[in-house]
Amino acid sequence: MINKTKHDSLPSLGSALSTLATRECRRLLRALAMRKQRQEGIHEARKSCRRLRSILPLLPPEQPTDAVDHGLRELAHSLAPLRDAHMAVRTAKLLATAHETSITRPVLQALERRCEQMIDHALKQDPHWRQRRVEAQRIVAAIHALSWHDIRPSLAIQTLKHSKRRVKKARRKALALRTPAASHRWRRRARKLRYQLEFLRKARRMAGMKKHRTQQYGEQAKHLSAVTDQLGWRQDFQIFLDAVKQLPNSAKVLALRQELKSKSASWSEAELHA
């Protein structure tokens, strides 16, 4: 009787996922409110948007998630250029440290100026992210209104199977095509599956469900984390290449562009992580 009472007091899988989604919503709002560490806030806000998008497919198909998904996607996309500009600087510094390159101090300063100018321009258009925060509040309210209690373990398993098929398909195409776009699609799908596994692992623990499957989800998420980290470096390198193309012409920039033509293939495979 004691064990049964203890089990009955635990939340259902859907209730646990609702709690986790609420926590992620709070993280999103806090990230957008950050002022002193603006780039960290941008990064955390985009991660929260991606995590929340990953959890929506776990809801029953009849739930009105399309508008929420679209809103999260647009919010994340609005911050993407700012994050990319910051990552271009970060990647340049990593390459300058790890390789003999033409990434000189003037080039780094040009990338840093570009990053600062983009932030300044964005903040003039949306001071302290007020418009974005209003939109985020609207999205959060819509997320809270969804019927999380309707989520069933069987539906979660079906969703994971579908996500795994999408990852396998993207992986095959990426290995066949060897293009940045294909690799990025593989990374996005692998990351989404990883988030789903992490959410379900935590929710199952909260709901007191069988440990074996819960542990499997944790192991699978850990493997996917290694995959997305490796693919993430390639994406960061591509962002760096695109940023260099957009810098004003100078002797230093032109020299770096010439060097990138011959070395970019080997650099893109470099195991550089912060």
UniProtKB/TrEMBL annotation:
Residues 7-274 form the CHAD domain. InterPro entries: CHAD_dom (IPR007899), CHAD_dom_sf (IPR038186). It comes from the Bacteria. SMART domains: CHAD. This is CHAD domain-containing protein. It comes from Dyella nitratireducens.
